[in-house]
Amino acid sequence: MPLPSTERLLLGPGPSPVSPRVTRALAAPSRSHLDPEMVPLLDDIRERLARVFRAGEGAATLAVSGTGTAAMETAIANVTEPGRRALVVVTGYFGERLVTMLGRYGATVERVDGEWGRAIDPARVSEALSRGRFDIVAVVHAETSTGVCNPLDAIARLAREHDALTLVDAVTSLGAMPLEIGAWGVDVCYSCSQKGLGAPSGLSPVTFSARALDRLVACRSFYFDLNLLLDFWVRRKDHHTISAPLVYALDAALAEVEEEGLDARWQRHASVHESFVRALDGLGLSLLPPPGERLWSLNAVRVPDGVEEAAVRKRLLDRQNIEIGAGLGPLAGRIWRIGLMGSGATLENVSRLSDALAEALAGAGQPVR
Ligand SMILES: Cc1ncc(COP(=O)(O)O)c(C=O)c1O
């Protein structure tokens, strides 16, 4: 089979488009994982990731070889063991994944369930915390399955008041939405490279606060053991053969983040999202979450009654070369998931996508205002 030879506009829930600079970085000459030229690159990436997380003093930050799920497993495997109690906020598909994974690592899990499409009310978390003792409060900051941003700042504050570690999925927020790990008192946070940061998938950021480092368990996983990972990232011992092209690409992507400035990058995502919401309104379309609870990076767009959602996605892909995502779980068939993140968050993409959506909806027999 030939490799793909044409660009496709990636506006689904991830991966996001990769810029020409990041693409070029992938092709730099290879180096081994302990090469003297690799070492400063890894140091650079650690420092830049800590800045992108806005991690606090004494945090340990690195990128796990693997996708966001590998970083999730690293986060969980190093603070979870039988006997530890976790309270998990579940407002969508990825909250469910937290429940599953924490359970697999032996935690006793209790859940606070919220409506899919709404942010959790922190009062619900407060009430659950007052009913028992918990070691961990786990929450998805940016719930990609519903397009909702959970109130992380308030949840982390409550967890601190109850002396629990806050463990956070920031897969769809890092680099795209305000995230202040140190200032908000988040203890363990993981993300991915292929969304807000604009690199290919495969090297996933994770950070542990000083408080979390004091509460590590004896990790049952070899690959995801934080101490072994730090042996490699900091102490230069062999642990695994990190992919040089992915290191180059992440380095280039983080350089782009720093050159733009993190606050400016968040602002770009906000204003592109707002333009898209106006364009959707013009097409007679609306978002699932209410204003104030929406992600800027991922738009959960309601499928109008009578429209076959898969037919619209297929038409966008076949005729316009644009990828958007389908709904997951109970939202399958009811929403499209449209990502405007990383280098894909541009006004040009908003207008290209709005035109393409108008064409696809008309093709699906849906009159457009
Ligand atoms: C919120 C959230 N968590 C975890 C993941 C898993 O990440 P990955 O697919 O990179 O393993 C995703 C993927 O989209 C996600 O959106």
The structural domain count equals 2
Measured on Cα atoms, how large is the radius of gyration?
A: 20 Å
- Helix coverage percent: 25-40%
Widest sheet: strand order? Answer: 2-10-9-8-5-3-4
SS elements, strand count? 14
Please tell me the overall pLDDT.
97
Q: Structural class of the secondary structure composition?
A: alpha/beta
Q: Could you say which small molecules are bound to this protein? A: pyridoxal-5'-phosphate
CATH-scheme architecture of the largest domain: 3-Layer(aba) Sandwich
**Count the helices. How many?**
13
Low-confidence stretches: none
Q: Provide the β-strand percentage band.
A: 15-25%
CATH class of the largest domain: Alpha Beta
Q: What does it look like?
A:
It contains 13 helices and 14 strands. By secondary structure, it is an alpha/beta fold. It has two domains: 9-14 and 261-363, Aspartate Aminotransferase, domain 1 (Alpha-Beta Complex); 20-259, 3-Layer(aba) Sandwich (Aspartate Aminotransferase, domain 2), CATH 3.40.640. The strands form four sheets. It has a seven-stranded mixed β-sheet with strand order 2-10-9-8-5-3-4, with helices on both faces. Strands 11-14-13 form a three-stranded antiparallel β-sheet, covered by helices on one side. The protein has a two-stranded parallel sheet with strand order 1-12. Helix 2 (38-53) crosses helix 10 and helix 11 (262-282) packs parallel to helix 13 (347-363). It is globular and about 60 Å long. The mean pLDDT is 97. The structure holds pyridoxal-5'-phosphate (PLP). Pyridoxal-5'-phosphate is lined by residues 13-14, 67-69, 72, 94, 140, 144, 169, 171-172, 192, 201.
